[in-house]
Design brief:
The protein is mostly helical. The protein is 67% helix and 0% strand. It has helices spanning 2-23, 33-37, 40-63, 68-72, 81-89, 92-96, 98-109. The longest helix is centred in the middle third of the chain and has 24 residues, at 40-63. It is globular and about 45 Å long.
């Protein structure tokens, strides 16, 4: 059942998200009808998977930062600990436009990837 959720919801969501970020056009990111027609447990699973993926990037951003190659190229898209703290301690800011905040976080996380050799070297 998890494979079905990944194939029908998470994969297409990430593809749309990638296209939106690449074009830098938030208007491309629209809710798909298939998402809302899925059973609630499937939507919960998809949301958890997407949240875990974004959470991993937030973790890497704070603990590791950007790869040196991207810093050398002038990339500044990264989120630091104080920005995450502000986001989590002032949730009322999310009420204004959760979709815009979600896209902004993904945009800021676009350059953050797992770029260390071994997980044992995180710290």
């Amino acid at each position: 059942q998890l494979a079905g959720v990944v194939g029908t919801q998470v994969g297409p969501h990430l593809e749309l998200l990638h296209a939106t970020l690449k074009a830098n056009d938030p208007a491309l990111f629209v809710a798909r009808r298939s998402w809302w027609q899925s059973p609630l447990p499937s939507r919960f699973q998809a949301t958890r998977l997407l949240g875990a993926r974004l959470g991993e990037r937030l973790f890497y951003s704070v603990q590791i930062g950007l790869p040196k190659r991207l810093v050398a190229e002038g990339s500044r898209r990264c989120v630091n600990r104080s920005q995450i703290t502000k986001l989590l301690t002032h949730p009322t800011a999310l009420r204004t436009d959760a979709r815009a905040q979600y896209l902004r976080l993904w945009f800021d996380m676009a350059d953050v990837i797992e770029h260390h050799q071994e997980r044992a070297k995180w710290f």
